[in-house]
């Protein structure tokens, strides 16, 4: 295991030297070290795995006001650029909002494969749902700019405006998605629409949650991961 920093961003590389890399991108409340179970599978198949802490996470948890796309996207592009100097073939494994940031960052990049777990595929729809669940109107949000919402989230007019200016209109990377029917953030119809529009592969776990964490869910995640990574 190699511990390093990429432009000051804490990162880890797992596995023996290879031309093939998976960039592992965690979700909210995650950290770079949670890539280890994925790396155990990917490295057996001849890949290395690069994982890094997102803004306000892991070793960067003391940062403030940086866990948003206008901070994350430039970082993702920087890390990919560094990775392309070292590896010939790059794929992505991303969780939840990490998948959303990945799509914003890598739309026009040469990525071999993406594996998304519980991905946020339509951020505007998710924000709209959070507003509805919290009883917040668009006019109120525009006026107040920032409003605490349900589920420990914060609604932001700046964030919503950014999302609307940067819609995911194209996605050409071969993509496989793992989704759970008990996901309380992502609607199945949103996943189905994305899969149909961009010709993705989809595996659905009955009873699976947004966060795959129970023994049963982790077994499904492990099997899906093993089946989805080419040898």
Question: What is this entry, summarized?
Answer:
The chain folds into two domains: 2-121 and 171-228, Rossmann fold (3-Layer(aba) Sandwich); 123-167, no CATH class. Helix content is 39%, strand content 22%. It has helices spanning 36-44, 69-84, 96-106, 123-134, 138-144, 157-165, 188-198, 215-228; strands at 2-6, 9-14, 20-25, 48-52, 89-95, 114-117, 146-148, 154-156, 175-180, 201-205.
Quickly give the CATH architecture of the largest domain.
3-Layer(aba) Sandwich
The stretches of 5 or more residues where confidence is low (pLDDT under 50) are none
Q: Briefly, what CATH class of the largest domain? A: Alpha Beta
Question: Over the alpha carbons, how many angstroms does the gyration radius reach?
Answer: 17 Å
- What's the main sheet like? 8 strands, mixed
Report mean pLDDT, rounded to a whole number. 96
Query: Quick one: overall form?
Result: globular
Distance between the termini: 21 Å
Strand percentage lies at 15-25%
- CATH fold-type name of the largest domain: Rossmann fold
Strand order within the widest beta sheet? 1-2-4-3-5-6-9-10
Helix content: 25-40%
Number of helices: 8
Order of helices and strands: EEEHEHEHEHHEEHEHEH
Whole-number total of structural domains: 2
Instruction: Give the tally of β-strands.
Output: 10
* Class by SSE composition: alpha/beta
What's the name of the CATH homologous superfamily of the largest domain? Alpha/Beta hydrolase fold, catalytic domain
